[in-house]
Amino acid sequence: MSATTALHLAAEIGGPPHYDALHYVELARLAERGSLDFVTLGDSFARPGLDALAVLSRVAPATRRIGLVPTVTTTHTEPFHVSSAVATLDWVSRGRAGWSAEVSTTEAEARLFGRRSAAPAAELWREAGETADVGARLWDSWEDDAEIRDVATGRFIDRDKLHYVDFEGATFTVRGPAIVPRPPQGHPVTVIDGTGGPSQDTAARHADVVLVRATAPEQAAGIREDVRRRAAAYGRDPDTLRVLVALTVDLGDAETAPEPGLESGPPLAAGGSYYRGGPVDLAELIARWHRSGAVDGFHLTPITPERDLERIVNGTVALLQHRSLFRTFYPGGTLREHLGLARPANRYALAEGRA
Question: Contact 77/53 with Cβ under 8 angstroms?
């Protein structure tokens, strides 16, 4: 990766549960003022709180450009419903949707549903990959011009441009077609944490954005290269992947010196590597890692979103923009455009020579 490759930045806006949608609207608008690629909103069956996908559907009409990426747990969830819900978010946001795939491994969470017992993580990540696969097929099951809406003839849909998926996985089957027309982006952006373990292959095979955890640029570069190699082995173009380092940040004292490197920072569960320091030093770290070619960007999780996101946007991002290292405006309208990713062709239209 050359030093001129665009830098990509994203931020998590979750934290302690809030039950006022305006809280999330304000955080997303703050991130949008900094021209961040997207915000994520974490979710889990293991904690109380609002449904992340539903919350970001509320945030969508209150924002204009920023990408919206909720966590969607594929375990205990119908793949057809996942596909429909993510496609709906893409429609209501006018092409700014993504989804961050996650799995549920505990018996306590399994008992909430009562459908099956907990399963090993490797098995669940294979299922998550199948959910991503069938989701993409369902998004393609309507060709872009399948809707006719011809009042004179009473024809709403061109049936020749609807397609059956006929997918059979290890734990589910889906026939299709979808009930939601093809999303504005074709395929909303798929985000997967692929640092290691059973999620790594799923990320390499299905993700558009892969989150990784690293404590030094050399380690990040090695992980990035491994993800790209795995993607190529699955027949994908590695240049269609964006690899972002997941970094938990504590900017509570802007004058505090950062931990030396990241090696001495305490690891935080599901939060990536840990950074404690000021906005200026964070900007230096981001610039240094990106210039070295180690990463495509960073996904930042503020320890305290209301405090730290403001310091990220008005401090770290502003400095990167001042140095012409990060954009000052959105050149496009969709999340794929923010990330420099093409809109996928429809597989069924291609097969029939109509793409």
Answer: no
